[in-house]
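During the no-cost extension, the postdoctoral fellow (Dr. R.K.) reprocessed legacy sequence entries with the updated structure-token encoder. One reprocessed record is reproduced below for audit purposes.
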Amino acid sequence: MAGGWNGCLLDANYKHLFFRKHHVKNALLCKSQQNTHWTNQIVIDKKQFPDSNKLRNEFCIRVTGEVVARGEDAVNPRLQSGEIEIHVSDFEILSASLTPPFQLTDEVGEDHRLKYRYIDLRRPKMQTNLRLRSKVAVTMRNFLDAQDFLEIETPMLTKATPEGARDYVVPSRTHANKFFALPQSPQLFKQLLMMSGLDRYYQIVRCFRDEDLRADRQPEFTQLDIETSFMDEADIQNIME
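Re-encoded structure tokens follow.
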């Protein structure tokens, strides 16, 4: 069984519908690809499944079928699944879609992409970026864990402290005319951890600075925050490298 979003339609001699699926989560058909997202071609018999005539781009569907090898002239080496296709034995439209504001292959402006972010995030480039970001975070955590660092979360709602930028403030519901500040960095909290005897701390943390945009800084950003005790400059450099 597979489920995902329809990518494009090709009518082959009016006998079958061939279309690619974007972001297919393979559950049963291909055991070596369980829980992965990929692009796959499926084949639907239009006479057996007349509802397939309703399909348009970005319809969300679910199919069950047999995985078969493509013919030699139909192999697509650019796809991970380019040597196989799914011949459908059961078909269901989970959710119809209006005409998308843009196709996944279109080049559109940033304002349009942000307005329809749920469409933009279906694009292969965006999916690749998010998966890479996740893998980088996992790699950092695994490495620092092997170096006996502790990942410790620090408070987000805190008191304003003098730092290099203006604070974002959040009004308190329970204390009239009082405000929390969002952290520009976890500086004070990690110093408390060092004094508490927790000598190797790290956190992949969100930080907030109410300042103008710069090439290397945004008002909200994520950083790898590290603090240690009893290490010299060379020790820190070796870990970072």
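The chain has five helices and ten strands. Confidence is low (pLDDT under 50) at residues 9-36. The remaining legacy entries will be reprocessed before the final report is submitted.
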